[in-house]
From TrEMBL:
<dbReference type="Pfam" id="PF00701">
    <property type="entry name" value="DHDPS"/>
</dbReference>
<dbReference type="InterPro" id="IPR013785">
    <property type="entry name" value="Aldolase_TIM"/>
</dbReference>
<feature type="active site" description="Proton donor/acceptor">
    <location>
        <position position="99"/>
    </location>
</feature>
<comment type="similarity">
    <text>Belongs to the DapA family.</text>
</comment>
<dbReference type="GO" id="GO:0005739">
    <property type="term" value="C:mitochondrion"/>
</dbReference>
<dbReference type="GO" id="GO:0009436">
    <property type="term" value="P:glyoxylate catabolic process"/>
</dbReference>
<keyword id="KW-0704">Schiff base</keyword>
<dbReference type="InterPro" id="IPR020625">
    <property type="entry name" value="Schiff_base-form_aldolases_AS"/>
</dbReference>
<dbReference type="GO" id="GO:0008840">
    <property type="term" value="F:4-hydroxy-tetrahydrodipicolinate synthase activity"/>
</dbReference>
<keyword id="KW-0456">Lyase</keyword>
<protein>
    <recommendedName>
        <fullName>4-hydroxy-2-oxoglutarate aldolase, mitochondrial</fullName>
        <ecNumber>4.1.3.16</ecNumber>
    </recommendedName>
</protein>
<comment type="function">
    <text>Catalyzes the final step in the metabolic pathway of hydroxyproline.</text>
</comment>
<feature type="active site" description="Schiff-base intermediate with substrate">
    <location>
        <position position="127"/>
    </location>
</feature>
<feature type="binding site">
    <location>
        <position position="170"/>
    </location>
    <ligand>
        <name>pyruvate</name>
    </ligand>
</feature>
<comment type="subunit">
    <text>Homotetramer.</text>
</comment>
<dbReference type="InterPro" id="IPR002220">
    <property type="entry name" value="DapA-like"/>
</dbReference>
<dbReference type="GO" id="GO:0008700">
    <property type="term" value="F:(R,S)-4-hydroxy-2-oxoglutarate aldolase activity"/>
</dbReference>
Length: 258
């Protein structure tokens, strides 16, 4: 079991560096030592990423989740990204997990770059949120000789990812429906595919609601609906309207979760 802080659902682009480090430190103190803590440390420049990754390690992270730099995405060729991640991995005191999230960055980490980087001893995996199951399956197939984990980046295609060999998932919906997602993994590991399929189908709409449909405000409100504390978003993100809250509630209810 792993815990991730400062991922996309953690609003990491909206936090100052000192806030990021405080979050890692607080979570590490609250988390049992045997639980793996991943923390987002990706920045736009290689130098800043190296510095923040080192500081994140000092704050207690066991591994770094490093999103692709994307502001100058026209210049982010496969070669540029390989160089970026290689330099980060060489300097990092903790293992690095690649993070490709094209819905947010409008940049997919190229397949050839992933396969090259998978050979680096300090790059241990990828969180792939693109939703291309063919690509996920191919990465699994091409990296079988490496100590490299392929992680699904969304609960919407989690079953499909397990079916093609993914090691696990890092999913926004786990903040709300953590136990059902763990159950889905359990069913897949046991080969109980019919039960897994039925469970996956009930997760698709709620997952879309807290990602593509309503985003971070939807995820935070869903946490509130389930008795957790989602809390307010950081500006410029704003809260859902009353009508949107009812639509969100209806999506979870119609799939048997509320």
């Amino acid at each position: 079991m792993r815990l991730v802080v400062l991922g996309s659902s953690g609003e990491f682009p909206l936090l100052a560096s000192r806030e990021r480090l405080e979050l890692v430190s607080r979570v590490r103190r609250a988390l049992p030592r045997d639980r793996l803590l991943l923390a987002g440390s990706g920045c736009e420049s290689t130098r800043a990423t190296i510095e923040l990754t080192g500081s994140t390690a000092e704050a207690g992270a066991d591994a770094a989740l490093v999103v692709t730099p994307c502001y100058y995405r026209g210049a982010m060729s496969s070669a540029a990204l390989v160089q970026h991640y290689t330099e980060v991995a060489e300097a990092s005191p903790i293992p690095v997990v690649l993070y490709s999230v094209p819905a947010n960055t409008n940049l997919e980490l190229p397949l050839e770059a992933v396969l090259t980087l998978a050979q680096h001893p300090n790059i241990i995996g990828i969180k792939d949120s693109g939703g291309d199951i063919t690509r996920i399956g191919l990465i699994v197939h091409k990296t079988q000789q490496e100590d490299f984990q392929v992680l699904s980046g969304s609960a919407g295609f989690l079953l499909a990812s397990y079916a093609v060999g993914a090691s696990g998932g890092i999913c926004a919906l786990a903040n709300v429906l953590g136990a059902p997602l763990c159950q889905l993994e359990h069913l897949c590991r046991q080969g109980r595919w019919q039960e897994a399929r039925e469970l996956q189908q009930r997760l698709i709409e709620p997952n879309a609601a807290v990602t593509r449909r309503f985003g971070i405000p939807g995820l935070k409100k869903a946490m509130d609906l389930f008795g957790y504390y989602g809390g307010p978003c950081r500006a410029p993100l704003g809260p859902l309207s009353p009508a949107e809250v009812e639509e969100l509630r209806g999506i979870f209810s119609s799939n048997g979760w509320l």
